[in-house]
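Progress report, Aim 2. The chain analyzed during this reporting quarter is listed below.
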Amino acid sequence: MNSYRIPEIAKQYTEYDMIQNHTDLPDFPELRTRLLFAFLNGNSKFSSSSELYTLATSLVQLALDTHDLVTASNDVKEKKAARSRQLKVLAGDYFSSRFYNLLAQAGQIEMIKQLSNAICEVNRLKMNIYMKMKQLKLTAEDYIHLTVEIKSQLFLSFSDFMTEVYDQAWPDILRSYAKCEVIFEEIFRVESAANFRDSWGFWHILQHGTKEERKQLHADESDQTRLRTLIHKYNITSQLYQMLDSHTKQLQSKVQQLESDKLISELFHIGEPFLRFSAKQPKVLEEI
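Predicted structure tokens for the chain:
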């Protein structure tokens, strides 16, 4: 059985001085990468390719996430910011090229096709959520669902591989982990007025708030006092904690139904950050 070392291998593609000195990369998709490796490595049919498949998928995901950080406007004139933007574009393109190169060298043409189709689906989902956001037709529930689907698509392309051994467990557990990951990230977005825009809390207040409160959401983002008042009124942080706790418990139940004790142990280890975070949830959440 292979040991998990994907982040270390990926560093040869991500740790370039030019990138590190002039721009920031998104976080490595650690949770979904570990999850995919655990399932593939536990399947004797694919264990020999588990490292290659997982590495290639993680690089594609990193490429997509890097391009997501590129600002929509190219109006930035300041040299440092302009260079950072350009390097994000180039870095994302480079990570994508490495995915093609790795799989092509291994003769994995069918896998290139599957992941390429998944990339198309990711972009379709992103356009869907973007249009709903632009038209202010996105609900908080839509936001969670679509974000989970966007995070899951590349990894869902392996569903056919998993069916023989894990039946329908792979897509269900993958989406459950992705949902916990999304909610986990949303809790931290509440802490910043700049990051709150288009978060779950933003869409929740837009959906349930008064006409005046909806106007306040679109007002100056620097007015943190006004924003904190809305966050407190609608219990945004406590709702997110409750959602994380609920979905973590559901996830535990799904994992325990798997037949492999080794896989169960690995999946609980992967989900440990969610469990620890839920356990530390304060009894009384003060939203300020």
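DSSP finds 16 helices and no strands in the chain. The radius of gyration is 20 Å. These observations will guide the mutagenesis work planned for the next reporting period.
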